[in-house]
Structures are given as C-alpha cells and as structure tokens.
Automatic annotation (TrEMBL):
Keywords recorded for this protein, A-Z: Oxidoreductase
UniProt source species: Hypericibacter terrae
CDD domains, per database record: SDR_c (cd05233)
Protein name: Dehydrogenase
Chain ranges of the Ketoreductase domain: 4-196
PROSITE patterns named in the record: ADH_SHORT
InterPro entries linked: KR_dom (IPR057326), NAD(P)-bd_dom_sf (IPR036291), Sc_DH/Rdtase_CS (IPR020904), SDR_fam (IPR002347)
PANTHER family with a match to the protein in the record: DEHYDROGENASE/REDUCTASE SDR FAMILY MEMBER 7B (PTHR44196), SHORT-CHAIN DEHYDROGENASE-RELATED (PTHR44196:SF2)
Length: 260
C-alpha cells in the first residue's frame, strides 16, 4: 500500500523510527516525538528529492501537546496515521512512580492520545480517501500483552488490551469505508522502552528488532486488523486463547518475578 503522507508518533527511536525508514521514498513523513535532535537526525537521513519530511516536537500526554499536533498535522493531509508512542513501567502496581511515569501518564499516552488523534484526523482521512479513490491507513502499536493480564506491567498491559479491542471494534464499524486498521502486537523488542520501563529482559526471550516489527506491520495492514510479530508472540496468543485465564495470569506473574 503506497501512502502519500504518514504521521508517525514516537518517531525519534524504536518502532516509530523503523516504520519511518521502512516506508517507501514516495511517502512524505510527518515525524513527531519529544527528542528534537533525534528527530532531526532521522529527517536528515530520510529527506530526498521529491520527499518532504516535517518535524514537530510534542508531548502527546498533555491536552496542549495533542491539540498542537493535530493543528500542525491537518494541513499536510495525512493518509496514514501510525500511533506508536507509548511507554510502561515494570514493577508493583501500587509502588510510587516518578512524575510523568505514573499510571495516569501511561493511560494518557497509550490510550487517550491514540483515540484523540483518531477522532481528530480520521474523518478528514476518510473524506479524502473517498474523493480520490485511495485507501487510508491507521496503525496502532500494541503488544503481545494485549492478549492477557500481565503482573508487574498491569497498567501497560491493560492499555494494550484497550488498543487491540478498540482497533477490532472500529475496524468493524468502518469495514465499508476506504480505510485499513491494524493493531500490530510485537513481543520483547530492542528499543529504549525496555530501559525506560526498568524492565529486565527474560533470559529465554527472543528479542525482536524494530525493523522486523515495521516490516510485519506494513505487510499486514489491509489484510487483517490484528497481527502478532514473531513466533513467541503467536505462542503467547495461543496460550491466552486455549489455557484457563487464571493459569495464564499465574504463569506470567511467576515468570515476571524470576526475570533478570
């Protein structure tokens, strides 16, 4: 699927950066994040003749940041929205957290920001798609923990549950419209998120690369609303589907307690 203009949140590193790099040179880029120097370095590496790369630093965990992002992006008429920005915190759900790292902040960035951007930008994307005979795209970066509760990542996992359910629901609502929706669900991925979340990496885990996640996402959109990434992700989804939920939660809790 060739898109004319893509808006990518959390584009300064990780999966967001990888998606920006994986899109074809014919796609103009609207890159947003909080790290301006990294965004600028990415823009410099991707800019080419005929391709526009625009930057906007914004904290989408705030109403002001979201409003500024929407106001900035709308005139560029994006036809692909990639809701990638997100974070979590590994640890006891009742433990104290630093400002900006607490449960409220996680919900604002992981849940409210994608919904707000969808509601603000999707109507215009649909209108343009109907007029020009093309299809728009909405990608949401979820996680394998969207399929089961995850002790010690309780709020993060719940936010990814929300994204998966939200995408499946509105994909059905918009099934007759010229738009494709995708919740891509990677497992443990080599990003700065792991360090920020203070999350130990399981010794047995296969770590996915951001580029692999990006390629899977761009290949899957238009084919299905939910896409797992990697064999461990598919295995986790099977566990969640076929094993008793109580058993899965207990198993994941024991695993988390022994990570590192």
């Amino acid at each position: 699927m060739a898109y004319q203009t893509a808006l990518i949140t959390g584009a300064s590193s990780g999966i967001g950066e990888a998606i920006a790099r994986a899109l074809p040179p014919s796609t103009n880029l609207l890159l947003t994040g909080r790290d301006r120097p990294r965004l600028q370095a990415l823009a410099d590496s991707l800019a080419s003749n005929g391709r526009s790369v625009e930057l906007q630093t914004a904290d989408i965990g705030t109403d002001e940041g979201l409003s500024r992002l929407v106001e900035w992006a709308e005139p560029y008429e994006p036809d692909l929205l990639v809701n990638n920005a997100g974070f979590g915190r590994f640890g006891n759900a009742l433990a104290e957290a630093e400002p900006g790292e607490n449960d409220e902040s996680i919900v604002k960035v992981n849940v409210l920001a994608p919904v707000t951007l969808t509601r603000a930008l999707a109507p215009g994307m649909l209108k343009r798609a109907r007029a020009n005979g093309h299809r728009a795209g909405l990608i949401y970066v979820a996680s394998t923990v969207a399929f089961f509760p995850m002790p010690y990542l309780a709020t993060y996992a719940a936010s990814k549950h929300f994204l998966r359910a939200y995408v499946e629901a509105i994909a059905n609502e918009l099934r007759r419209e010229p738009v494709d929706l995708l919740a891509v669900c990677p497992g443990v991925t080599r990003t700065a998120w792991l360090e920020r979340a203070n999350m130990p990496v399981p010794r047995f885990a296969r770590i996915d690369e951001p580029g692999d996640v990006a390629r899977v996402a761009l290949a899957a959109i238009g084919r299905r609303p939910v896409q797992m990434v990697g064999s461990q992700g598919h295995l986790a989804a099977c566990f969640a589907r076929f094993l008793p939920r109580r058993f899965v939660v207990a198993m994941m809790g024991r695993m988390a307690e022994n990570w590192g």
